[in-house]
Amino acid sequence: MAETPPVPRRPPGELEASVLAALWAAEGPLSAAEVQSALGGQLARTTITTILTRLHDKGAVSRSRAGRGFAYSPIQDSAGLTARRMRSELDKQDDRSTALARFVSQLTSEDEQLLRVLLAGAEGGAPEGPQPGPGDAL
Question: Most buried among 9, 11, 79, 124, using CB within 10 Å?
Fold first, then answer.
């Protein structure tokens, strides 16, 4: 009998991203079974529950009692979560100046201009150039 090749592993964070996308698309809190359904039902409910528990432990989702289980809601939108991750990575650095300098040096000119506008606005100055719209994120 021939062996079946192993199923390739998903990239790190892919399942968490899928679960968060399902929660962001929902109009309210979802149970693990509802997340499973929203993702097409191909993952085991225990897998979904494990991912939701990990996201809760990381502070990415909140949960409230719903019957014998929990209903989960995202704490932040996608942009807020990205900002939190960026801050978390920066907080791990001993040399914040070098880390920030390298980050800024890799920005596109459009992102650099947006960052300048956002920083000017945060300082209370009159920002120059285009204002970021509701869909723009850092």
Answer: 79
Q: Could you give the angle at the alpha carbon of 52 between the alpha carbons of 26 and 12, nearest 5°?
A: 105
- Taking the C-alpha atoms of residue 77 and residue 75, their distance in angstroms, rounded to an integer, is 7
Residue with tokens 């899928």: 18
- Lowest-confidence region among 5-14, 59-68, 71-80: 5-14
- 57 three-state secondary structure: helix
Amino acid at the residue 41:
G
Predicted pLDDT at 7: 65
pTM: 0.68
Half-sphere exposure of 113 (CA within 13 A, CB side): 8
CB 20 within 8 A of CB 81: yes
Give me the helices (H) in the chain, please.
14-25, 32-38, 45-57, 78-91, 96-105, 109-122
Q: Is the pLDDT of residue 93 over 70?
A: yes
Nearest in space to 71 (alpha carbons), one of 112, 34, 109, 19: 34
DSSP secondary structure code for residue 30 in this structure:
B
Alpha-carbon 110 to chain mean position? 23
CA distance linking residue 75 with residue 16, whole number of Å: 14
